Amino acid sequence: MLRLWFDPREVRKEGEPPDYRFSLANERTFLAWIRTGLALVAGGLACAQFLPPLPVAHLREVIAAALLLLGAVVALRAVDHWARSERAMRLKRDLPASVFPAVLAVGVALGALGLAVVVVVQVFR
Fold first, then answer.
1. Which comes out higher in pLDDT, residue 4 or 92?
2. What is the dihedral of CA 9, 94, 18, 8, to 10 degrees?
């Protein structure tokens, strides 16, 4: 599967070409995920550089590292989903199902709730 990531000719060896509109839509979805990954990386760098020290030791660095790692995972997941979707379209199969968007959403929500707790605790100190 990794060859599909780096050599588009590998994708074209199987099946038949789908309607180009579907391939372009797949590419737009890929680019949207890449933008999400870049936003997470930018947020991680912003936390590391601009967030003042927090009352919990090293919390700022943990937040920054978590955002940077999540950005990397999103970018890798984007290319994997693009390749698997392109292959499925060429083979006239159902598009691959993914729980990743739900896992990402729950992870972000839990992270936001955790930070909200830290902020509220800090206010009442």
1. 92
2. -10
